[in-house]
Design brief:
6 helices, 2 strands, globular, mainly alpha, 177 residues, two-stranded antiparallel ribbon
Length: 177
C-alpha cells in the first residue's frame, strides 16, 4: 500500500460563505480544538433536550448549556476572522449571532444543516432518532439557548483540559468536510 497524500494536498479550503447585507463573510474551518468544543457543546445540548423531552414531553428552549461569557467565546471562536470583518463593517449583533449559530451547526453537522439554520428552517430529526431531539436546534433569531429560568451557571472547561492559553473556538469531529 502506498503512502497517504499530505492533507495540505487534499484540503480544498473548507469555508462557509455567509452573505449579510450584500457582503459575503467567509467563515474559515476552525482549528481542531474549536471543532471539538463545538461537538461537545452540541452533544451536551442535545442530551439536555432529550432529557427535557423525556421529563416534560417537550423541548426546553430556556435550558442553559453555556453561560453568557462562554457563549460569546464560542461565537468568537467559531466565526474566526469573519467576526473581525463583521465587527469592522458594523454588522448588527442579531446577524452576528445568526451567523455564529449557523457556523456552529456547520462545524457540528454539515453545510446542508447549516443552510437550513441560515434560512430559518428547523433541522429534521434523523430517522434513528424517533424522539426528534435534533430538532431542538434553536430557530435563528430566537435568542440564546444558553439561559434557563433559574439562571444556573456552569463553567465549561477550556479545550485541552483547562491548561494553557485560551481556546480558539468550537470544535467538531466527523463533519465529513
Amino acid at each position: 500500500m502506498g503512502a497517504f497524500k499530505d492533507w495540505a494536498d487534499l484540503d480544498k479550503g473548507a469555508a462557509l460563505p455567509l452573505p449579510i447585507s450584500g457582503t459575503v463573510y467567509t467563515v474559515p474551518s476552525p482549528p481542531a480544538g474549536v471543532g471539538l468544543r463545538v461537538q461537545a457543546f452540541m452533544q451536551e445540548l442535545l442530551a439536555a433536550q432529550a432529557q427535557a423531552i423525556k421529563d416534560n414531553g417537550e423541548i426546553d428552549f430556556d435550558q442553559e448549556v453555556l453561560d453568557d461569557a462562554a457563549e460569546l467565546d464560542l461565537y468568537r471562536d467559531v466565526l474566526g476572522t469573519a467576526l473581525e470583518a463583521m465587527e469592522a463593517d458594523g454588522v448588527p449583533i442579531e446577524a452576528v449571532k445568526h451567523a455564529a449559530l449557523t457556523a456552529i451547526v456547520w462545524v457540528a453537522f454539515d453545510e446542508a444543516a447549516a443552510k437550513r439554520v441560515w434560512e430559518g428552517k428547523a433541522l429534521a430529526a434523523p430517522a434513528s432518532n424517533p424522539q426528534g431531539v435534533a430538532s431542538s436546534t434553536p430557530k435563528p433569531g430566537s435568542g440564546s439557548t444558553t439561559t434557563s429560568p433559574n439562571r444556573k451557571r456552569r463553567r465549561r472547561r477550556p479545550a485541552g483540559g483547562g491548561q494553557g492559553g485560551p481556546s480558539h473556538g468550537p470544535t467538531s469531529s466527523g463533519t465529513g468536510r
